[in-house]
Amino acid sequence: MSDLLERLRDRGWRLTAQRRVVAEVLNGEHVHLTADEVHARAGRLLPEISRATVYNTLGELVALGEVIEVTTDGRAKRYDPNARKAHHHLVCTRCLTIRDVPAGAGDGTLPEDDRFGFAISGVEITYRGLCPDCQSGA
Amino acid sequence: MSDLLERLRDRGWRLTAQRRVVAEVLNGEHVHLTADEVHARAGRLLPEISRATVYNTLGELVALGEVIEVTTDGRAKRYDPNARKAHHHLVCTRCLTIRDVPAGAGDGTLPEDDRFGFAISGVEITYRGLCPDCQSGA
DNA sequence: TTTACTGCAAACCGTTTGCAGTTCC
DNA sequence: GGAACTGCAAACGGTTTGCAGTAAA
């Protein structure tokens, strides 16, 4: 995570308290927060951080490829800091929880005949189903 | 397509001019219109159709499983009438065109070990890349 | 000191909603 | 005739933007 801050500084970023806090909040595995959740958690560490700054920072992190934007439903985008290893998502159809699943070997290979001339640069796979808690009626 | 209208009537739908027109607009392969586009096209056939009715109708068609809601970007949802055969999507990263690709045999099989206890009910695969036109700079 | 960044507030876009009026069956 | 549907307009949630002020380098 401090890696992230270093990388950002190397790219000419000013390391402001706000950016530090956003980076902090996005630290971890299986983190898929909405911008609003990031704002709420960042606000616990730095009370006066504004929504606009959170949106700016998230947008910049996405542009730099440090964070992945995930839209598994029509609602708010979620921000996934696990950009360094290829993975897909498992989404609970009931509680909307998201889990990362490692990318498999055969993923993202579309037969030549089905490519319609597209030059494919990436694949996203979203598995949908009930998570263990929702299966047991929790 | 008239099949669709029959199916809807069988389910107790009132066949209003508005619904007929929305069904008409959604007819075809590789159709991935936004609600607004549906509204615009429907408006050419039935000038006074309202946005609310288009949204209502689209929502109902989705609930009935006749149309699939596709969110390939964070912007507007797109409505895909090709709900009868399983397929995935090829999305141009530049012009955002969408093409359907047939679902392959091995799609949607996630190794038991990677399921985290989820009961998987469906998979969506989105391939991203440049479409032929955008590759040639068109 | 300079210029990137922040916070505010207003605007924005896609979508949903409440309700009065209309129309299908 | 009655319930289902439509259209309007207002409200909504998530996101973006313009701009004056602040702070990192």
UniProtKB/TrEMBL annotation, chains A, B:
> InterPro entries of this UniProt entry?
FUR (IPR002481), Fur_C (IPR043135), WH-like_DNA-bd_sf (IPR036388), WH_DNA-bd_sf (IPR036390)
What is the required cofactor set for this protein?
Answer: Zn(2+)
Q: Mind telling me which Gene3D superfamilies this protein's record contains?
A: 3.30.1490.190, Winged helix-like DNA-binding domain superfamily/Winged helix DNA-binding domain
Query: Does the record carry DNA-binding as a key word?
Result: yes
Return one Gene Ontology term, BP aspect: regulation of secondary metabolite biosynthetic process
- Which terms are listed as keywords in the entry? DNA-binding, Metal-binding, Repressor, Transcription, Transcription regulation, Zinc
Family membership, please give it: Belongs to the Fur family.
A GO molecular-function term, please? zinc ion binding
Tell me the cofactor note: Binds 1 zinc ion per subunit.
Q: Does the keyword Repressor apply?
A: yes
Indicate which residues the UniProt annotation says bind Zn(2+).
Answer: C92, C95, C131, C134
- Record CDD domains: Fur_like
List the protein's name: Transcriptional repressor
